[in-house]
Amino acid sequence: MYRHKRYKTLLITCLLCLSYIGLQAQEQEQKPSKFFWGGGVSIAINDYLDIDVSPRVGYRVTPNFSLGLLAKYEYMNLNEDEPCKINTYGGGTFAQYNVSSLFSNQSLPFNIYAHTEYQYLYSEIDWKHQNYTGYHTDDRWYVGAGFSVPFGGRSYFYTTILYDLLTIIKNKADTYRKPVISVGVQF
């Protein structure tokens, strides 16, 4: 019987501690941080394998305007007639402006934003069929828009549609003129 009292006391103590921690977390949620972090992961399996990891960290300059830094790693394995493996590393900056507040005085269940980002990328290429191993550098300037939906405190799911203006200006292949659609989470 003494043993059961000890377990009950331990259980009640744990519940009280968890309740206190929960109350502290709610109080902190009411004071929004100016810093945020997040990113996306994508995997595409078509005629080739494409894995992309893109973390980011940002700072809210105003409630509607944010600036930040991003990193990028992408692995591509092109398994067609001529196998080719590409590892791409890079980083960049981004700016984002919440335009929802311009259109509505009421609080919407989502945010609409304008987005731009610059990326500098370094790719290592291993093209077995052509006996080619080398590297390539590229810069990209994406411009577009997106929306985010809040879930739990300061967390958001986001979707952004971007066009690479530098690729369009440089008149590169049509396949690179398609929009880039990114989906991710921000905390």
Short synopsis of the structure:
The protein is α+β, with helices and mostly antiparallel strands and 187 residues long. The protein has three helices and eight strands; from the N terminus they run H-E-E-E-E-H-E-E-E-H-E. It has an eight-stranded antiparallel barrel.
Which helices and strands, and how do they pair?
Elements lengths: L1 H28 L5 E11 L2 E13 L4 E14 L5 E15 L1 H4 L7 E17 L4 E19 L5 E9 H5 L10 E7 L1
Antiparallel strand pairs: 1-2, 1-8, 2-3, 3-4, 4-5, 5-6, 6-7, 7-8
Beta-strand portion reads over 45%
Instruction: Name the CATH class of the largest domain.
Output: Mainly Beta
What's the number of domains? 2
Rg: 23 Å
The CATH architecture of the largest domain is Beta Barrel
How far is it from the N-terminal to the C-terminal residue, by CA? 47 Å
* Physical arrangement of strands within the biggest beta sheet: 1-2-3-4-5-6-7-8
The low-pLDDT segments are: 14-19
SSE order: HEEEEHEEEHE
Description:
With 187 residues, the chain is of the alpha+beta class. It folds into two domains: 1-31; 32-186, Porin. It has helices spanning 2-29, 100-103, 165-169, and strands at residues 35-45, 48-60, 65-78, 84-98, 111-127, 132-150, 156-164, 180-186. An eight-stranded antiparallel beta barrel has the order 1-2-3-4-5-6-7-8. β3 and β4 form a beta hairpin. The longest helix is centred in the first third of the chain and has 28 residues, at 2-29. It is elongated, with a radius of gyration of 23 Å. The chain starts with a helix and ends with a strand. The model is unreliable at 14-19 (pLDDT under 50).
